[in-house]
Fold:
Amino acid sequence: MSAAVEKEDIKSLVDGLNFRQKVDRSLGLIREAHEEFGDRLVVANSLGKDSIVVWHLAKRIRAGIRGFIVTTRFKPRETVTFMNDMCKRYPELEVFQSDEAIPERLYEDNPDLCCELLKVQPTRRAIKEMNAACWVTGLRCTEGRTRTDFLEIEERDVGLLKLNPILIWHEREVWEYLALHQAPVNPLYAKGYRSLGCGPCTRIASGPEERAGRWIGTSKCGGECGIHTRSLKVDYQI
Ligand code: SF4
Structure:
């Protein structure tokens, strides 16, 4: 793919492009990836606002584009209902979940291991079973301290490209796009959440960081589950 830019350029694009230019850039990135990978391009859908934008953008490139959702036994009721609605509307969305037996409160004692088992491993399975050569995510560099160093196109695993087509969007631009296209969103946003995850590990938080409500009270606070930081081709030992 030719549209890759370096880290410093990414920072200048965040405030250097207007909303319209960002939408066009995102569409261009997905179009180019789709031309290169065809059916081997799949879209990850976390059921959060950013994923809904990416899903909508991808559908503008090709209506039948495939996607996957990784869910866990700890997702809030609202997210499960929203997921079921999305899957009814888009049968090309596949759901992956781990049913592995784990200690009841592993999310308190070892949230890294809990995320590895319930989120990262099912993501690896999705990539493998869908035969993906490129996966598309809704990651944005303005979401919080752990997301500032990503690129629009990453190759963390050999043979698996990761595309972050809305990397340079601000939070308000995500909401602008969703409002303009009247896209349905997870009802938890109306309750005050800014970043969504599993029930036990997600709180409504104030402050500037969008992900501040994730894993509050643990070493992982405001951090990552691992799907954006660990290998998706090789099993990882915690
Ligand atoms: S977000 Fe919490 S409950 Fe969900 S997989 Fe990670 S540690 Fe476990």
Q: What stands out?
A: The mean pLDDT is 92. Residues 181 and 231 are 34 Å apart (CA to CA). Residues 7-186 form a domain with the Rossmann fold fold (CATH 3.40.50.620).
